[in-house]
Amino acid sequence: MWSSAALYTNPSSSLSPSLLASPASPEKNINALIRSHFAAHNPNAILALFSQAPSQPTSSLYCIRPTRALLTSILSHCATDASEVILSIGSASGLLEYLLQWLADETGAGVGVRGVDVARTNVFLDEGTEDGERGFVWLPSGKPSDERFTSTTVLFTSYLRRPSILLDYMSACPVAHTIITVGPISEDPGSIDDNVKRGLEGWGSVVWVGKPEGLQDWERMSVWRRRRGITVIRGLGCI
Fold first, then answer.
1. How far apart are CA 7 and CA 119, in angstroms?
2. What's the pTM value of the predicted model, to 2 decimals?
3. Domain extent listing, the chain
4. What are 35-71's pLDDT values in tens digits?
5. Which CATH superfamily is domain 68-238 in?
6. How far is residue 21 from each of residues 13, 25, 128, 187, measured CA to CA in Å?
7. Whose CA is closest to 64, among 41, 93, 24?
8. Which contiguous run of DSSP H or E holds residue 156?
């Protein structure tokens, strides 16, 4: 997901009733509603916003509409008998990741959600815990060179603007068994960058492609699963 700190700063006056009622500023309306429900610790109400209409105004808080159907689909492709740790690369505001963690906890999915970004754009996630299984990590270098991500079992991206960074995270997360990408079909990381395509094909194979409710006609979700027998060594890649 793209990142820009200016996109997420918003004064407290944005929650005023006059703004919420203003038909002239649909983006500010949806942002204010989301922030208001978040402040009230009501993620279910945020999800309800995305089920009220087939589309929503564009917003600086999300690239893809985090519908319950989309979040459920993501969880269905990563949950196993063991505890899972999802690392969202480029989590930006953290709205999708916040809702995904809430839904995982509500359904007992046994999933921890972690967000990472090069910019301090996080709004909705708590600061990352020491065990590295949930929360937000600020990584200004953009290089996952430390040990904080080694427990990651699922890599997730949405609107990944620099596909090559996926290779860095594949190398930094040696136990990851699933990669889930969401975004424009024309910008699929496995299609537009030859190095990334080779890296993904050497690592595993596509097991599911689809469009859960909430995605636009030009968007899709792809799921890659690591091939049996493939070993990933941090810093070296697949062998």
1. 11
2. 0.85
3. 5-49, 68-238
4. 999 999 999 999 999 886 656 667 889 999 999 999 9
5. Vaccinia Virus protein VP39 (3.40.50.150)
6. 13, 9, 35, 36
7. 93
8. strand 154-158
